[in-house]
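Tokens as discussed.
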């Protein structure tokens, strides 16, 4: 199925930031008083939902905005070192050339998103809605739909976590799950995905034929 509007999550969907996340997690945990993780067992974390992860490390909901702010600040200092996944740039260009509106809804900061994308790709993005709680994406997706004048049925939210699927469902749009992100695809398959993308090149199929 093709879509007029592609709404992208950022971390784990466009940006390969999981290694950075692991590298700074324990520093953030020490700073905000929750448990460290065993980085050697990081693969297990991909099977946890956000809520399960918070329970696992003893991170109360009221501390999440503080921890997120620290993560974004640390990422800002290192954003130039965080790559996009191979094939993302080409896929975004392809979709843009075929008239698909590109937007980003991310809990990360707009500054970080723009920096990692770079000026050329950032210029292809119609709208950035960034910096909200990871639990607050649904309202931002609805805001993107309204701003772009696109009906929910013509939009797809593309992400890598169960919370992304939940936000899409609340906003009334379809959810596309990527195989290369933070969460294991087996976890995302429990969320009634409309479609899956095995590689970034697969994103091209949501554009209408030229």
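Sequence:
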């Amino acid at each position: 199925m093709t879509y007029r509007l592609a709404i992208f999550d950022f971390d784990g969907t466009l940006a390969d930031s999981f290694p950075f996340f692991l590298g700074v997690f324990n520093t953030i945990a020490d700073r905000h008083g929750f448990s460290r993780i065993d980085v050697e067992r990081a693969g297990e974390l991909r099977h946890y939902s956000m809520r399960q992860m918070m329970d696992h490390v003893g991170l109360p909901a009221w501390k999440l905005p503080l921890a997120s702010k620290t993560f974004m600040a640390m990422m800002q200092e290192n954003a130039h070192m965080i790559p996009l996944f191979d094939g993302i740039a080409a896929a975004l260009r392809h979709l843009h050339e075929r008239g698909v509106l590109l937007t980003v809804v991310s809990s990360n900061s707009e500054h970080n998103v723009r920096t990692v994308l770079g000026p050329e790709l950032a210029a292809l993005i119609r709208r950035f809605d960034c910096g909200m709680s990871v639990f607050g994406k649904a309202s931002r997706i609805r805001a993107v739909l309204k701003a772009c004048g696109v009906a929910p049925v013509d939009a797809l939210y593309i992400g890598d976590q169960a919370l992304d699927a939940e936000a899409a469902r609340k906003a009334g749009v379809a959810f596309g799950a990527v195989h290369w992100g933070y969460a294991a695809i087996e976890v995302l398959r429990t969320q009634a995905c409309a479609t899956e993308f095995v590689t970034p090149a697969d994103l091209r199929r949501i554009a209408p034929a030229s």
